Amino acid sequence: MSDWIQVKGSVKKGHGVASGKSGDPRFPKGTIAMQKPLFAEQGLDISGYFLGTINVSIYPYRYEIEKPKYTFRDIKWAKEEPAEDFSFFDCRIILNSGEKFEGLVYYPHPETKPEHFQEPEVLEIMTPFIQDLKYEDEVVLELDRRQIEIHKS
Question: Which residues lie within the region annotated Disordered (predicted)?
Fold first, then answer.
């Protein structure tokens, strides 16, 4: 039995703070750019990824955390913001063309996150930049079921 499971999803518009597209003056280059060196100090190099996230809705499914690949606690990444906990999970995103990109599910723990919450069926995905990916595009996510599991809502 493979440890990889697949779920269909749809690309949704996010808050724009991860990439800096929101125009929030607290995060001019985006939250990911601010967090990147702190993740590197903890042993996670995200330099190969676009400094933003792809928001993928897997509705009518939901996810359940099993065992993250990485979990970092009490990360103080912004002077004016409280410290947060983050977890990451292996994933792949497959486009309709069949093209596949290795990535990570980026999961700021909601219990430590001060704002910009996601719907419970939305996963934030980090990958290298994907040219021509648009909102509402359908994709397939492959996830390692030892790290994160998918259930029908």
Answer: 1-26
